[in-house]
Design goal:
homopentamer, four-stranded parallel β-sheet, 164 residues, 4 strands, alpha/beta, Rossmann fold
Amino acid sequence: MIQKSQKTKIAVVDTMFARGDMGKVAIETIEKTARDNEWQVKVVRRTVPGIKDIPVAMLNLLEQGCFAGIALGMPGSAPIDKQCSHEASMAIQQAQLMSKKTVLEVFVHEDEGKNDQDLANVMRNRAQKHAQNLMWLLFAPEELQKRAGSGERQGRDNAKKLEL
Amino acid sequence: MIQKSQKTKIAVVDTMFARGDMGKVAIETIEKTARDNEWQVKVVRRTVPGIKDIPVAMLNLLEQGCFAGIALGMPGSAPIDKQCSHEASMAIQQAQLMSKKTVLEVFVHEDEGKNDQDLANVMRNRAQKHAQNLMWLLFAPEELQKRAGSGERQGRDNAKKLEL
Amino acid sequence: MIQKSQKTKIAVVDTMFARGDMGKVAIETIEKTARDNEWQVKVVRRTVPGIKDIPVAMLNLLEQGCFAGIALGMPGSAPIDKQCSHEASMAIQQAQLMSKKTVLEVFVHEDEGKNDQDLANVMRNRAQKHAQNLMWLLFAPEELQKRAGSGERQGRDNAKKLEL
Amino acid sequence: MIQKSQKTKIAVVDTMFARGDMGKVAIETIEKTARDNEWQVKVVRRTVPGIKDIPVAMLNLLEQGCFAGIALGMPGSAPIDKQCSHEASMAIQQAQLMSKKTVLEVFVHEDEGKNDQDLANVMRNRAQKHAQNLMWLLFAPEELQKRAGSGERQGRDNAKKLEL
Amino acid sequence: MIQKSQKTKIAVVDTMFARGDMGKVAIETIEKTARDNEWQVKVVRRTVPGIKDIPVAMLNLLEQGCFAGIALGMPGSAPIDKQCSHEASMAIQQAQLMSKKTVLEVFVHEDEGKNDQDLANVMRNRAQKHAQNLMWLLFAPEELQKRAGSGERQGRDNAKKLEL
């Protein structure tokens, strides 16, 4: 957990390719949550062409002092696009292991929405919820633990929790 | 094998996304097995949003002194969720090779259960058996060797052993 | 961002296998953009047999002083060719993380075109746009940020931007 | 190639999950081949729960002085099991590259056998032949080279050799 | 590029599993090309059981002084064999990035041939052309660049070049 008195740098990397400005939504949520809780943060943003350009950009920001990151992108709907998203995700995993820092991945697949409005809703909801999660990870991990195994979802309604 | 007189730290990393608190089940099994055998353990737990957030969290716990870990999560049922579970698993493999420490992976796929009750049974059974396995790995590896090639399963009934 | 007064070395790696000289198109775009903006660049080009030979060639150029790279290739249309392109892409990701430098990947799949003319158009367009993107990444990152989440595509028409 | 006068340590890692004790078969072949040829070997065996637990266990044995290893396991027949075997295999590759030592992988897929007896035959045959191969790799590499491109198979009959 | 007066060591790694001696074909081509051009080479050959045993063998040869390598193998025709070839290829990529040296991969899939004669033709042709490519890479890279984007194929007829 971060010392609350210092400015915590957070990396936000997004793409030109995505069909909506999820990076802006994430930054607004990060900054509002920080203000509401008196947490000190500083967002560093990079925009790259597409999702496969995210990992190295993110790694550089993490190695230059960001404490954690959020990666926002939109894989297309063709089979080759799924393959590209897999490659981007694997390299984002690698960047985390190399830097020992967490990167939350906010990927919304272009075919997830029933229509443009639904797609926009998923994008906004997922970007907001993961920005919130990132703040908890950095400043209030107990909030995550409270919700362990509770079926929390980002982008859609939560699932039903089962008693074990 | 661990010296039995020192407290052995064990990492438990689970998710908010899963539809049941497998982390709690694993911890109960670890602690009961430890008490029954007079093995000294200390559990360190982290909860992260989803399975792809497990690897870096686990790597950090292992590098901070945990001797081994257990990773509990629930991939969803869509094809993209299988891809995500593959990415998480590959990075958990990587985290093990980087730290030289074992992480048992307790993933229950959301579509493994015939219904909610069956799914809950699989989750509880797999979390318990792998928590047990982890204790054997750390404190009693001869228990594993006794069962070599015996068709032991976690989450379902054991398979039939063949004579070679 | 690069100091504009020094010569910035850029790696261009392409293949014999591709059915058109995308490397030449990329180099022409890089050099024209540099002249138009008075940015000083020096292109270092390597041609390799096929896409799987790109990663190590690129890594060597990046470690020998190139600031960034562009990788151009054409995966064939058979299933095994998709697998090869996946392997090449994964290793290009790895080369980026090892060198901490960006490599834009311009892969045009042989089956992307409706016919030879259409395929040639996709190849030319994608090579030009990504060469342009690379110049922005190196010399004018604000141009990328301006287009964040705007549905920019390379090789085809842009997609519609959604308000979030 | 190993000095024949010293004891060469060989790692054998197998699983509880497999439906037959392939580890025992491999060890018997290793020890018999060693006796027949007056090669000095010492087998170090570890049993782990399932195939995904093999890589880190193997890496540790190789780094603790084993010259090479053999990994024996049985992926299940469901699609998710193929994915798990892929993850295990990728990490076994990684463990080899990290340690610079060879690990022969003896995986028998649960659905390879026409029935239980056939499955048992494949398991025994593949474990024996790969144990033999490992001994050649360590002590008599010329035996492998003699058979270059000859269609040698493990677990099933050899294939027909073609003249090139 | 290599100094032409010293002996350049080249690694050739092939398998027992393949149904024809492609390693021999590659070595003949390497040695003939060297003689014809007065390039000094020394071939170091290793034969391993199957394609998944190539990467670590190749890495060792590259780290022991070989300047580049050629890896020859034959994945079988079953789906699991495609997975194995993917694992081998990924690890060969990794070995190249670790050693910073090029390895040309000559994999002929068992189901590529219309019949045994056709399969033998593909094997011979691909092994010869890639051995030739490797010599160009080491001694005459300008030959590769001359053919950039020209649709050169190994194992089959070349494809038609498009003007961009």
